[in-house]
Every structure is written in C-alpha cells, then in structure tokens.
Amino acid sequence: MDRILKTLSCVAVLTFLAGCASPLMTEVGSSEIRPPAPDKVKVVFMRTSFVASAIGAEIFEVVDGQLNFVGALPKGTKIVYETTPGQKVFMAYGTAADFILGNLAGGRIYYSIVRPNWGTGGMIPTPVKTNANDREFSMQSPEFASWVSGTKLYAPNAQAAGWFIKEKARYQGIYSEYWSRFQRKTPEEKVERTLEPQDGVRK
Q1: Predicted pLDDT at 17
Q2: How far is the C-alpha of 116 from the C-alpha of 52, rounded, in Å?
Q3: Which of 98, 124, 133, 177 has the highest Cβ tally under 10 A?
C-alpha cells in the first residue's frame, strides 16, 4: 500500500512539473520541417503518443560545458532545433538527466525520440537511425512517419529566455552531476547514444 501511495505521489509531482514547463512553449502554425542551410543542421526532438505524459522534459544543447535552452517537450510534441555541424552534446531532463551525442553533418536533419526512463524518472534522448533494422527507433520502422506527422511543432516563446536566466545555475548543477555519470558508460553504450553523419537526411 505504501508503495502504491508513493507511486501515485510521484506521478502527481511529475504531472505538476510537466505542466510548469508548458507556458515556455508556443505551438508553431505549420509542422513542416524545412531543410537547413548547408552550414547548419536541424535536430528534431519528439515525444510520441506512447510516451507517458507524467514526466516533463526540458532539452538543452551543451556548448563548452554551458547549457543552451532548446525547449520543453510535452507529450505529442516536437521541437526543431537549428545548430551548427560537428560534435554535439544534448541533455534531456525529467527528474534526472541523460544525454545524446552527435557527430552531425551540415545540411541534414536528424531525429531523436525523447522517452522516459522509469528506473530513474529521467528522460532518454534516443537517436533515430536511418538504416538500423534491428533497432526499435529507426527511420526504417513503420511507425517513423507517424512519429513525425503525429507530433505538433512547438517553439520557445517570449517567457522562455527569462525563465532560463533564473534557472540556469540549477540546471548547470544537474548537468555536472549527470554528465560525470554518463562518462562511465562503455564506448559501445555511447555509440548507442550517438547520431552519426549518415543518420541525417536531406530534403
């Protein structure tokens, strides 16, 4: 009984946290994902309908150890984030943090599914590979088209910048703690969390 009550309490708290993030984002009129310029890349972060909505998800790019706010990602939404090519680190945070790495080529669009880790309460930003038939999260999956078309496109609004200024120090501490844990992963585990150049598509 105590375990059930504890679980329900955690769900209630996580639902509150998810709701707190939503005022930072505004739905974009069109969900079309336009190709980036040759010297830019776009990374599409998605939360699909089968991902539980009780856990909030904030996404950040890590640049020289400093966080840049990408956006908050409720269930059934996506964010299209434009950045530069090269070696990348992105962090997702629910009630714990996790990471996705990137070796991104210019002029391409990359995809990531952000899903909950029920063991930690964290969010796992998972690479969607272009050609990996043995992977659940692949562009070869029959569900891929519905992941893209079935999520609404959101972008940070005017409140987001002020919110991040106030919260950045806290999130930097979270990053430092969980990045050190991520470094203990094996090379093989890190490869599983990496978007490679060929995982990007051109439109």
Answers
A1: 37
A2: 7
A3: 98
Token pair, residue 195, equals 């978007």
pLDDT in tens, 26-63: 999 888 899 999 999 999 999 985 545 667 899 999 99
Cα dihedral value 115, 58, 169, 8, nearest 10: -70
Where are the chain's structural domains? 2-199
Supply the pLDDT for residue 31: 80
